[in-house]
Amino acid sequence: MKNFSTAALFLTLVSAVLPATAFSQTPSNAVSGNARCAFLANAPDQHVVVRGDTLWGISGKFLERPWCWPQVWDMNREQIRNPHWIYPGQTVYFDRVAGRLRLGKEVGSDNSGVPTVRLSPQVRSTDAASDAISAVSFKSIEQFLTKPLIVEVDELKNTPRIVATQEGHVFLASGDKAYVRGDLQGRTSFQAFRPGKPLKDPVTKQIIGYEAMYLGTLKLQRLSKAENEPHTLTVVTAKEEMGVGDRLIPEEPTPFINYVPHAPEQPLEARIVSVYGGVSQAGQNQIVAINRGAKDGVDIGTVLELRRLGLMVPDRTTGNGRGLIKLPDEQYGELFVFRVFNNISYGLVMQVRDTVQVGDIAKSPE
To answer: Is pLDDT at 340 greater than 50 in this prediction?
Structure first.
């Protein structure tokens, strides 16, 4: 297989509106001299993008390690935050003669049998973004995109609160009325939350946030007309028991997340704080929280390697076997960060060969 340039997959996946240009060959199948960012020896000749594909999955068809996108695409930070859309029906072609990949439609072939790909500008409306393929499985993270999940100490203190319930009900169900006091800030749709368990940094043991319990949604029915009169809202959905004292936060539209996975700009090491859902272990496509956030340089799309601390074991080859040695930390998977708070971030567990446990390491790819 011919070797690829550092920009090969950039042309493949994100330059549907740009013509292909020539690139020099590299002496090995590693990208930019990084031996870990190698292309697969059995990379296919082409791949037709279909609904349900992800950019991560497509890259995995050509790369041994899909998280090597920054080196392969040679993208700057602005391009990483705003990638071009890729749509079902487009075809990724592998030009083995030129050592590059192309994105487009086949309109002929040259003497080598490699399809000639004609690239033309494509105009897509913002509404069409939902038809584009996402970076990772959108279904796995959709419910986590608009719910705060993490709240700082006292963050809910000044938000609107439920002060009374319809006919004195202890808990509210769908269709019930909730009487609310507080500034609604002109909004009409809300999510109800209750501060949940504190999250402690596995290293410092300090509380770095609280995992908020999502209770359901409400809509404004009637604004108060007097200072001592509450607003009237109707419960639309009740996921958990909701009642007096629970807090409301304006509901935001679900964004279409299509940020490109990339390594952190600076070396980063984090620890797994919790596994969403209150369980102690996570597997592929489950959600975990780490003890690093925006203040540490984490942003949406950050990719980290999952590692387990090497055990301390006795060296049984010496004397009485009491001498201890530390085994190397073992890399067993990848984490894609999709939601970032100040001190905590949520990530989707990608390919793993073991279960993710609280206290495991998540660090910059080596």
So the answer is: yes
